[in-house]
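Need Putative leucine-rich repeat protein's 3D structure for a figure. Predict it.
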Amino acid sequence: LLFSFVLALSLQTSLVLGSRCQKSESKNCIVLTLTPLDGLSGDISLPDLSGKTSLQIKGGNLTAFGEKLSNQLGSVQKLHLGPLGLREIFLKADLLEVTAADNQIHVVKFGSSTGKYLLEKLDLRRNRLKHLAGFEVLTDLIELQLEDNQLETIDFGVFERMKSLTKLNLGRNHITKLEAIRAINLPNLEYLSFAGNRLAKFNVSMWKFDSLTTWDVSSNDLIYFDGLDVGQQFPSLSAVMLSGNGWHCNWLSDSLKMLGDNSVNVGDKDERSDCEKLEGICCDSLDMFANSGDDKVAAIKNDQEGMREEWSTNLEKIKNNQNQKLRELETL
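Structure prediction for Putative leucine-rich repeat protein:
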């Protein structure tokens, strides 16, 4: 009987290995390892978090940080989860900061009847996300880091209500398509990255990012994008990264002029020596696309005339605005 009791007690306590705060007097609880016996979270218990404001779990083996565990967080506002092998995470509405990079997360769950989400920073880098369903409830986000996931299509409508968002990093995913069926106004967005994806073209005519200073579209398959009016859409833009693409030379030439007219610096260069370059950025002429048999050449031919007309109109607007400002100054 004694042996059975000891064995049962041992099994019960082994459901959570190392589940205690390293410094009990600190408001920041650090747990070195969290490893339930079965790898699941059903019977796991977090340490006593009374009076704690942050919880950091450095390692262990846990497939899901679900709603039951989240409800044990109490007054914790900052949750930092190390490499645990997580596949699923539940976001509690009153958390301010969540980090769960370097896991295998492909499911993010949100409370169906919870109050307003207060989350300001979310870091899910190096996981396995394929979509952003449900993320639209995170209306207080300031920073969203989603690099190195498996995202393919991004509907910018998911960010529409994130008016405090300042940093959005979607780099090194598998993104081939950006969608925006209505105008997207993100007044505080300062940094935006699509670097290292598979984009060939996209339309920015529905975007209005007044505070955007840095925009990285490097290392894609981009030939051009539509609807760009830097002065109207991105009046604070100061740096753009363009290298590692296959820009059409005519489009790139017009774009570089617009960027220069708006004091925007191209912050990178192509290191290749086997391409035509404009201001250090590789580009290809229409003839080169045709000779290569690239299947995008038809789209370029169809759009080229319309693009040039659009750029001419935009440049004329800029000149008119500048002339109007000069006339106003002369009357002072």
